[in-house]
Amino acid sequence: GQSLEQPSEVTAVEGAIVQINCTYQTSGFYGLSWYQQHDGGAPTFLSYNALDGLEETGRFSSFLSRSDSYGYLLLQELQMKDSASYFCAVARGATNKLIFGTGTLLAVQP
Amino acid sequence: GAVVSQHPSWVICKSGTSVKIECRSLDFQATTMFWYRQFPKQSLMLMATSNEGSKATYEQGVEKDKFLINHASLTLSTLTVTSAHPEDSSFYICSAFLAGEPSYGYTFGSGTRLTIV
């Protein structure tokens, strides 16, 4: 089987740093990706980790530890527009179907 | 980058009718398209993988006769919700994988909000 577990909700204030965790159980692991989704919209790609370590893209960073089956998304200098749902995801199988985590709703408060 | 055009963006239908959702790949050929369903405050659940020129592959628990998928050309995949009922009301979204695309290869349509009354 496969599962990607995330906290359901996280609340933080503007300007703060927040970390969203993702623990996974999946076979044939090729890497962990992160997506942002605003209500009613399509997922937007944020970051991808194929190897262990930290990937930095502007205010967003993502970390992966394959030995721990764990990753996280780090959002710095939070802004109100960062309020959204965040999903980790893995690609599976010969068709590269993308399987999403349970999702985390981030609420940024003034 | 690659673009997937999805229509309609929203639709309201009466219970018992069938609804067709289209996804077109613009400027690229999508041999494979993925269809997802998302209920409010939940994750995107993969329903099926649409393969050009062959039968779709459905995920466990998804009714093949309920959700008909057709991928007759390299640029068009359709999802038809047959005999729709209020419990089928959801957000449906398609995605194509294109190796080499900056966004880790996955391009999403804009989604269809389906409401059955």
**Which pair of chains forms the biggest interface, and how many residues does each contribute?**
A-B, 18 and 25 residues
Average pLDDT across residues of chain B?
92
Strand content of chain A: over 45%
Round the Cα radius of gyration of chain A to an integer and report it: 13 Å
Ends distance of chain A: 41 Å
Q: Figure out the total of helices of chain A.
A: 0
What's the N-to-C terminus distance of chain B? 37 Å
Contiguous low-pLDDT stretches of chain A (5 residues minimum) are: none
The chain-level mean pLDDT of chain A equals 94
Q: Summarize the main sheet of chain A.
A: 6 strands, mixed
Q: Report the count of strand segments of chain B.
A: 11
Low-confidence stretches of chain B: none
- What is the number of helical segments of chain B per DSSP (H or I, 4+ residues)? 0
Q: Give the strand tally of chain A.
A: 11
- Which strand-content bin applies to the residues of chain B? over 45%
Outline type of chain A: globular
Helix content of chain B: under 10%
The run of helices and strands of chain A is: EEEEEEEEEEE
Shape of chain B: globular
Helix proportion of chain A: under 10%
Word description of this protein:
The complex is a heterodimer of chains A (110) and B (117). Chain A has no helices and eleven strands. Chain A is mainly beta. In chain A, the strands form two sheets. In chain A, strands 2, 4, 5, 9, 10 and 11 form a six-stranded mixed sheet that branches. Chain A has a five-stranded antiparallel sheet with strand order 1-3-8-7-6, with no helix packed on it. In chain A, strand 6 (53-57) and strand 7 (60-65) form a beta hairpin. The mean pLDDT of chain A is 94. Chain B is mainly β and 117 residues long. Chain B contains no helices and eleven strands. Chain B has strands spanning 3-7, 10-13, 19-26, 32-38, 45-51, 57-58, 67-73, 76-81, 90-97, 106-108, 112-116. In chain B, strands 2, 4, 5, 6, 9, 10 and 11 form a seven-stranded mixed sheet that branches. In chain B, strands 1-3-8-7 form a four-stranded antiparallel sheet, with no helix packed on it. In chain B, strand 4 (32-38) and strand 5 (45-51) form a beta hairpin. Chain B is globular and about 40 Å long. Chain B starts with a strand and ends with a strand. The interface between A and B is medium-sized, with 18 and 25 residues.
